Each structure stands twice: as C-alpha cells, then as structure tokens.
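Can you give me the bound-state structure? Components:
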Amino acid sequence: MKKGCKFGTHRVIEPKGTLPQPAWKIDNDMNIYDNEILIDVQTLNIDSASFTQIKEEANGEVEKIKEIMLGIVEKRGKHHNPTTGSGGMLIGTIEKIGPALEGKTDLKVGDKIATLVSLSLTPLRIDKIKEVRKNVDQVDVEGKAILFESGIYAVIPKDMPENLALSVLDVAGAPAQTAKLVKPGDTVFVIGGTGKSGMLCLYEAKKRAGITGKVICLGTREESVNRVKKVGLADEYIIADATKSVEIMEKVKEITGGKMADVTINCVNIPNTEMSSILATKDDGLIYFFSMATSFTKAALGAEGVGMDTRMIIGNGYTKGHAKISLEIMRESKELRELYEKLYA
Amino acid sequence: MKKGCKFGTHRVIEPKGTLPQPAWKIDNDMNIYDNEILIDVQTLNIDSASFTQIKEEANGEVEKIKEIMLGIVEKRGKHHNPTTGSGGMLIGTIEKIGPALEGKTDLKVGDKIATLVSLSLTPLRIDKIKEVRKNVDQVDVEGKAILFESGIYAVIPKDMPENLALSVLDVAGAPAQTAKLVKPGDTVFVIGGTGKSGMLCLYEAKKRAGITGKVICLGTREESVNRVKKVGLADEYIIADATKSVEIMEKVKEITGGKMADVTINCVNIPNTEMSSILATKDDGLIYFFSMATSFTKAALGAEGVGMDTRMIIGNGYTKGHAKISLEIMRESKELRELYEKLYA
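Here's the bound-state model for the whole set.
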C-alpha cells in the first residue's frame, strides 16, 4: 500500500506541487493510500453559492443539474465548481481505514460521518445520482470518496435526523465564529440572516450579545423575514436588497441611532454585498465575511474608498469545536430546530 | 452648483444605487459638485497587480500600455482595471474646492497632495500620457481628477522627493497594519518581503517584534533578497517560489523549529499564494492578506481544507495614521530610504 502525505498532495494531478484544494485536477482512484479513509457516499451537500450557480446554468432542470455535476467530477476528480470556486460536504459510511491511521483515529468501519472539509478538495467518484433535492442543496448518490489524514469530520449524532445534522454541519463555521466574536452589549448586523447559516448566526449573536446588545436581521423577502421573526431570532428586522449599500446604511443608521454595528456578519450567497457590510459597520468595527460570493478586492478597496478602518475577516469554515457548537443550537432551541427541519432536512 | 453625496454616489452611472468603487462606470465630467475637490493630476501610481497585468497584456510595449490605460478610463470614467479589479493612487495639485467643504477641510488651492483612496473609485480624465515609468508603476499625465468628501489624502511632505513619498503612500496601509498587529516576541513571516510594500512591512515587523522576535523574509529572486539582506530588514531569508506551498511550509518549519509563524503578512502580487500563507502560520495564528491577487474562496476553503483555525484578515488599504506611520520609516532608516529611492522614486 502506498504511503500518502498528510494533506493529500499525493493525489494532485495538476498543477504539481500544490495542495488538493487549489489543484485543478486530483486523482479519484478509490484504492486508498496508507493514511486515507474510504467513504461510501450517501449524500452530497453542495455549497449554497455553487448550487445556486448550477441551478441557474441548468435553468432548474434536474437532468441538466445531474449532467453539470457529473461533468465537474469527471473533469476535476472532485466536486469543485469552477465558476464559484466552492465545494460543499458529504455524508457517508466508513468503508476502509488506512493502516497508518491505526491508533490515530477514533473512527471505525461502519461509522456514519459527515466530512467537514470542502468537497473542493475531496477525491470523489459518482457512480449514480439518485435524487436531487433542489430546495435543500442536497443530492443523494451512489459513490465513493476519500478523507485525508488532515481532513476534519463529525460523527453524525444519534439524537437528530441525518439530513438535519448535515445541514447544520455544512455551515458550522459561521455560528461558531459568531460565538467567538460577539461580546455582551454588541450591536450585531447579520446580512442574509434568514438563510441556512444566517439563522444560526442570529441565534448565537443574540445569546452572546445578551440583553444589553442588539441583533439586526437583514433579509430580502418578507416571507422569510417573517419566518425568522416568529422564532424571535433577532431584535430588529430589515427587508431590503443586500446589494443596495446606501439604502442598507440608512436603515441601520436609523435603527442604531447613528451608531452603526459593532460586528457585521455577512452570510448572503449573492455577489456585491461587500459595500453594504462596510457602510453598516462602525469605523472601528469588525466584519466577518462568511459568504463565498465575497470578492477580496471589492472588500479591500471598498473600505479604503470610504476611509473606513474596519477590520474585515475571511470566514474560515473551520474553527475549533465548530461541529459541537452548531449542533448544540438544535438541542437548545426547539423553535429553531423545527424551522430548520422544515426548511433544510 | 449641484449638491453631492459624501461618498460620491451622485457620480455613479451604472449600476445605479451602488457606490463609485463597485460601479462599472462613473461620471468623469470635471465640473465639480459643491462638496468635491478638483485636482490637476501630475502622476498616476498604478496598483502593482494592475500594472503587472497591463504590462503583460501590452507585451511590455509603452504605446500599447498607454492605449490600454486610456481605454480603461474611456470605458469606466476611472482607472479601474477590469481584470484585476484594482486601482492605484495619484499625485496632483488642488485646483478648486467645493464651497460646502469650507471650514471642513485644511486643504487650500495650490496644495500638492497624494490621494489615498483608490483610483478604482476616483473620477479621472486623462488628456495626455506624458511618460510611462515601467519599473516603478508610475505614469505622468496631463489630466484632472475628483476627490470626494469622504476621500482620504496626504499633503506631500517637504523633506523627501515627491515620487518617493508617492511610492511609500501607495502601500501605506500594509506597514501601518503590521505595526498594529505584531507584538513583541512574535515570529513574523513576510511573503513578498522584497517588494514595495513587503520591505516596509519587514521594517515595521522587526521594530515591533523586537529582540525576542523573529522576522522571516520570503523572496523569489536571489538578487532582490540580497538587496534586502544588505539593509538587514529581516532575521532569516528564504528564496523560493511563493506558490509552492509545501516547499514553503517545510522551510518555515525548519527555521522556526516546527513552531511556524505567529503572524504572516502576504504582500506578493501573484495569484495562488494563499495556501503557502496558511501552511506557514500557526494553527491559532493570524494572516494578513495585503496582496490584491488574493482569492477569497481559496483562502477560506484552503484553511478549512487543512483543518486550520487561523484568523485571516482582508488587507484594508486604510488604517488610522497610515500615511504618518509609513512616511516616518523613510526618516528613521537611511539605508531603507536609499534603497527605496533607487528602486521606486
């Protein structure tokens, strides 16, 4: 059995010398190296920005969606959307564990796990697409995947349905980072607060900002804002197009009495919302971009352009304890869990 | 005289409702609004990533460079490179000040200033390109530009040549942010440490990390690394291709005895260096991306992909006092000033 690199560089086909994520193409042969884990894949959870793009390209037609997805994996050896640059995650059962991992991993053959590393670096083979669940970005397949030694994962909890856990784990980084960033008394502005990651961020923000803080939710549609309002996830609600930066600024100014937000969390999966984030935030505030549609240059030049000293953080999908923190929300809030189950599971 | 918005939204032609920076096209008519400042432009300092792209597209031919630059301004009303998304800055003399700014600004007609907001949002008219200084990314022109009310600027200091001040101010955000991020005892890794912003970052890093810290400079070419070595800007030097993440990681591991960097500052103007930054940094370290060639998704997914909890910051070109901090370096270090004058002025 061949010896593999911790980060999976042995799977990179082109360009050589890079890691599997930035690589254009990786090897998806399912004979494992000595430090790899083979997974029998059950469900792919496609990144929201990626799946939105695929659905648009396919005009919403299921057969065309399948074709595009199979094409991506065929070309790249992984489900790494070339347009959005993003991936997603998967759920499956451990089929084989490389001997070099013995004593290093708690996993055993037969465990059901969710991989918490992106599909954009995970060797994947799809034998058949069984079902496309368009509204929840989930696709059931027959196929295999590889988890590298450095790859993170979570064993699926037994006290909630699999699809619910998968939906929560897919965006686990966002609420966990929110929990770490928000301090008591903070005014927190969540852009895209009615979405999959946004709702969890609202929940954590409200919990951490506490009674002296203020949490503001921005959503595009009245229907989805009302949904969130019913669960009481925020203190204030704005219904507006997230790309209309000047309008957003005026509304946040009104709600905060001109003080603006201490922390802004951007979870909306559409482009051109950098400036709304910047203008809604205090000069010495902090912006956390979790959206994969964020443009680095638009954020950097945007803040400079309006002379704002705002700290802007690139949303890292991983932070210590993120699976634990996010799954716990489903246990804490019965109302949010019910809503989440209805929408995403 | 027409009343203008603080941020210059009155100049946006398309798409409406956005700010001048994200806008595709802005109005470069040189009749000023009541809160605008008219500048007689002398020199454009094109952003390094942008100018590298333009030079490549022009195969290095000066006439072709001029044509591309005029084309950009013709199409967009600003020098906003559509490929890189970045701008640059300019130097010029105040020609007219809108009456609404009376008592609000210290500037007077005749002052020579550098604008510290990006060219990617500055209304610009180029009447003639007089000289292209290819090696310093500077272009002398006859033309006019507009500074908005929110626009930041620096009056050119009298104790150093203009072109030197302009080169320093162009990258002022990077050393000023470095000064704020680096703590005594830190191990600091500067990627692209031999470049225009990199050298200033090295200087600030060494000053702030102090005798108990360690500053590591990464450069691509032996010649430029030797230049920096002669001035003694770093404690350790690596000569390598910044895109070779695994190689870079091994070298930083060796130098730090496996501890890796506390703070990594990425100043290199080439794509695909996100992973090198991540692998060279401690799991709980901090990465500051100043390079405009940074890809948001590559950074976000890259860190997640290797299970790293690293905090990654989007380099904001502006931070309070940035002009003062960076110009002061030229007064503090005679050696660095000499090198800077030779290379960039």
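A couple of observations. The longest strand of chain B covers residues 37-46. DSSP finds eleven helices and 14 strands in chain B.
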